[in-house]
Automatic annotation (TrEMBL):
It is a multi-pass membrane protein. Keywords: Cell membrane, Membrane, Signal, Transmembrane, Transmembrane helix, Transport. Belongs to the binding-protein-dependent transport system permease family. This is Carbohydrate ABC transporter permease. It comes from Kineococcus endophyticus.
């Protein structure tokens, strides 16, 4: 576990090392393996080269909105698939899994045409609404609900007069929070790091997301990898904060779920 952890952490450590050195140090032989003293200088170059904080705000809006919508819609659909019988249930679930296996790149062109037709090209809605639900989240939460919610609890809720939504909010949600915490981390990271679709659909420079804005450092700064790495370090910090917050929630709710 220690060896595996070191291997996984090394790219992040190398990013920090390069962000604190100069571009000349990037080509040094042997390469530098300890942090330098140029971090603030490189960060200043990032802030003067791109609209960093504006792009981060756009990315935060998209990532938070997508995460909230995915957690709600995916868990709601998963509850229906896991605990309710309705016509063509197995067919619809299989169809959803089939869509899950289709590469996302295949939907790029029709999705872009749809955004043109409804006038959303260049807006953040084009990033939020298409990502409001996904097959992976439904599949994950369906498996989680199937194993963590006994049918007897739902039967008791029905006898107490709970309808579908009251069962979802009062019975299901308190138990599935660990699963939602994992899905929240996964969705937020995916939305934060998304690059291809924002690059295609965002044509307004003021509406760029962080990953697209950081890619401009290669153009505006040439091959200054130290500046590029400094931008990457700044972009990683919010992900670390979100991961730590949700992971604590994941562990805490796992214990509470066991007690319940």
């Amino acid at each position: 576990m220690v060896v595996a952890s070191l291997l996984l952490l090394f790219p992040f450590y190398w990013t920090v090392v390069m962000a604190t050195n100069t571009n000349a140090d990037y080509y040094a032989t042997p390469p530098k393996v300890v942090p330098g003293t140029h971090l603030l200088e490189n960060i200043a170059s990032v802030l003067t080269s791109i609209n960093f904080f504006g792009s981060m705000a756009n990315t935060a809006i998209v990532a938070v909105s997508v995460t909230v919508l995915v957690l709600f819609f995916d868990s709601l659909a998963a509850f229906a698939f896991a605990k309710y019988d309705f016509p063509a249930k197995k067919f619809l679930f299989g169809l959803m899994l089939a869509f899950f296996m289709v590469p996302a790149q295949l939907s790029t062109v029709p999705q872009f045409i749809t955004m043109i037709n409804i006038g959303w090209v260049g807006t953040l809605q084009a990033l939020i609404v298409p990502a409001a639900a996904n097959a992976f989240g439904i599949f994950w939460m369906r498996q989680y609900i199937s194993t963590s919610i006994p049918d007897e609890i739902l039967d008791a809720a029905v006898m107490d007069g709970c309808g579908f939504f009251r069962q979802y909010f009062l019975v299901v949600l308190p138990v599935i929070r660990p699963g939602l915490a994992f899905l929240g981390i996964y969705t937020f990271v995916q939305a934060w790091n998304d690059y291809v679709w924002p690059l295609i659909v965002l044509i307004n420079p003021d509406m760029l997301t962080l990953q697209v804005a950081l890619s401009q450092l290669n153009v505006s700064r040439g091959t200054d990898y130290a500046v590029v790495m400094a931008g990457a370090v700044l972009a990683i910090i919010p992900l670390i904060v979100v991961f730590l917050a949700f992971s604590k929630q994941f562990v805490a709710d796992s214990v509470k779920g066991a007690v319940r």
